[in-house]
Input
Amino acid sequence: MKRVRLGAGSGYWGDMLEPAVELAKRGQLDYLGFDFLAELTMSLLQRAKMKDNTKGYIPDIVPWMRTLLPITHAQGTKMVLNGGGTNCVAAADAVMADASRAGLSGVRVAAITGDDLTDRIDELRAAGVSLQNMEDPSRSIDEIADRIVAAHAYIGSESIIEALDLGAEVVIGGRLADSAVYVGPLMHEFGWDFGNADWDLIGAAITVAHVIECAGICCGGMSSQWKNVPEPWNMGFPIAEFAADGTAQISKLPGTGGLINQWTIKEHLLYETHNPSDYRMPDGIADLTTLRVNDAGSNVVSLSDMSGRERPEMLKVQIGYTDGWIAEARVLIPFPDTLAKADRCEEIIRKRLDIVGLTPRDLRFDRVGIDALAGPLARRPRRDPQEIELRVTAHVDSREEAMQLNREVTHVTTIGPVGTAFGAPLRPREVIALWPTLVPRELIPTSVVIEEVASSVAIA
Amino acid sequence: MWLSLSDLAYTRSGDKGDVSNVGVMAFGDAEYAALRIWLTPERLRDFFAGFVLGPIAVYELPRMNSFQVVMQKALGGGATRTLRFDETGKSVAALMSRFPVPASLLNGSETL
Output
């Protein structure tokens, strides 16, 4: 029975490179996939592109591909990534230039376009798409229309399959759904077609993709099993071996750190998947309630009985829009009487904000170590802690107001209790809020641009 | 006698927008059966009062002895605009682990 070996090379922008290099060298992989994008990332990249139209992709991918491509080319492994962000063609150009310098003649690099809807908002609305907010249907897009930074559709595997059919060794997409980075290669390898699909198999592919798409986070990273995880600093990233019958095994390379067992896989199957019988991705809907998870050896877990349903007609679109500024400031309060001093500092800051007439949209005081994480669920300690960090955050309308908030927190160190310590100030940050919505898939066609490294020629 | 959820299950949390989800993985069949009775949206709403402002759903995954808890308006507006330090709600799993469960449920006595 045909089996396809997929490795996960990255779970987020900023992930470690070493595990991907190990997988490329020793994983005997058919494909190495990479996810670099979080919900906010596309808006940040769009801004970078507006400042410089040769940018807008994840800058890390250029040195990463420079390191990995000579290895994967020799091993016959193909790479699929969503690090092209808002400028896949520029990313592909940069990767091509390095491949050319490395003498990798014949290597084909593909860029996927079509997910960027930033300049199509008016057109979509004219076509009758409401762009209603999925989290709050009462809100109209009109209230943010003049503050939109970026709008991108989570797209599926069609263009990945096309690029692989065209012989691409590196496929660079933008807002590919994380799962598509792995579902696309499986569909290409097994010859599956959306027009005549076995949706249980596609559901299985989406499920397996979900398990490995955050890389080390299914291998004992961020884990309830942390006490039993060996050498997380040498974390081995996951390998999924997907069989033609829709079963799979998850494993990692021998000699690496991390842990794969039923618990680390279960905790990742549940990670950010919400309604488990309706895990919606652009390529299909996975049903996570039918599958079975079994330990199948040391650091090997098998997955079976996975299922799915036909892909949704609507694609999720994430719109980013500017929404004021956040100021953050902090002081450290020493013993004795830390609790009373923190209360006094809060009182001082509130009074100062009244005096200068600053009314934030939202204002928050955290006593770090007591209630910063638990908020209203925290219990006030019976005894004074040795130190308290008083963290003050505010959501305000402008950068100027954010700076003013910082100044008023600084004042507490000169007019407040003795010993109140301050450090380097934190910079205000502009808020890009997110507006999730749905758009019919037929309005979001994607396409492939492919380039090939020329054969090296002797320099005359 | 009361137990904590962490006596019966592992937890891990994540985010999407302003939605926090907590995966609850029971240690075994008995723990799963106890939590099926006790881990309800109503009790979670009371437990997370003031922290979670929207509706709460609890989904069952019997083949994994697990539950998925999905809580709306739970992260102070979502990662990009919340004032919380824990922008993505990774620590919500720890809060959940203290959810109280009557020990009698696990001992086989269903009378509370």
Summary: The longest helix of chain B spans residues 29-38. DSSP finds four helices and six strands in chain B.
